[in-house]
Amino acid sequence: MKSRFLIRNTKITNSTGYRPVAWLFFMLYATVCFLACSNATDEAAQFFLKGNVQLQKREYKEAIRYYSEAITKKPDFADAYNNRGLAKFRNDDREGALADYTRALDIDPDFNTAYFNRAEARLETGDPGGSLSDLQRVEKQYRDSTFYQVRLGDTYVRLTKLSDAQSAYDRALQLKNDNVEALTNRGALYYSQKAYQPAEADIRRALQLNPKQDAALNNLSLLLAHRGNYADALTYVEQALELQPRQPYYLNNKAYLLLKLNRPSEAFPLVQESLQRDSQNAWAHQTLGLYWLGQKQSDKALTEFRIAEKLDASVDQLYYYIGMVEMAKGNRARACEAWQRGELANDDLAIKQRALQCL
């Protein structure tokens, strides 16, 4: 489920900052490995340990280099493939991470950590079914982990199994009531169901626990925008962008808010950059359509709205805007048809417009 709201990937916090939850698992696994390793693999082990140091320092390219050296020395080194996958994932190479996790599992089919890590990579590369399969594979070992439950909830969201997602987030918070990611993601789920009060409660609680949780900052921004508080909303999404300057959802959300604040010249380059980074985000295409609508270029606006519709027909108010463009072009029948589809999606603006123009 793509939206302006962001489901934040599961992370944990320690004295060195954020690491993937799997860090705990692979460190435990690696300790066992090295106690048992023979002298013949000492050189590979040293490269592996150097890679771990670089991964902890967030020097991902260096970590990848060391893990690759370890693999050269020991081609069946499942831990090195797994950890190189982590480094690639954090360096925005999702496909490379997926390949490394799969290779680790080819070598060791019982490597539970690699299943857990691959679940995230599959989710981020558009395979939520595969992600769920991997999570189910390790459910017995990790079902009492709050981080596992968050990942499970995220996967169910992508599969539009929202009641299952709710249960997983609830379980995550039962296990650890200050899990910031669980609060952030459950808040996003509430928002998608138009349960705005519990959404805000979860998101504000997440920010109390971690004021620099960028996804929660973004999501609070959109809650404020929903109320029409665009200026206040802008301050929160700008804070999110200070933490994650390249995040395409945040770029798009800032562009959307700038349009609402009648600052289209500032919005246009932001939505363009957002689409360069993620061309499949229906919300960004809607924002670009809104820009063209404001510039009175109906054909360009309609093109973007139709792209958004093809990518995700559940985008809020999409059919209201499609109807407005069709009406502006003199296509009353098509406008009424669009508003009727919006009515089926429970879009208040489309319902109101259809009542005024079509009934």
From TrEMBL:
This protein's UniProt keywords: Membrane, Repeat, TPR repeat, Transmembrane, Transmembrane helix
Top-level taxon in the UniProt lineage: Bacteria
TPR repeats: 44-77, 78-111, 146-179, 180-213, 214-247
UniProt cross-references to Pfam families, sorted A to Z: TPR_1, TPR_11, TPR_16, TPR_8
Transmembrane regions listed in the UniProt entry: 21-41
Keyword Nucleus: no
PANTHER family: CELLULOSE SYNTHASE OPERON PROTEIN C, TPR REPEAT-CONTAINING PROTEIN MJ0263
Stated name of the protein: Tetratricopeptide repeat protein
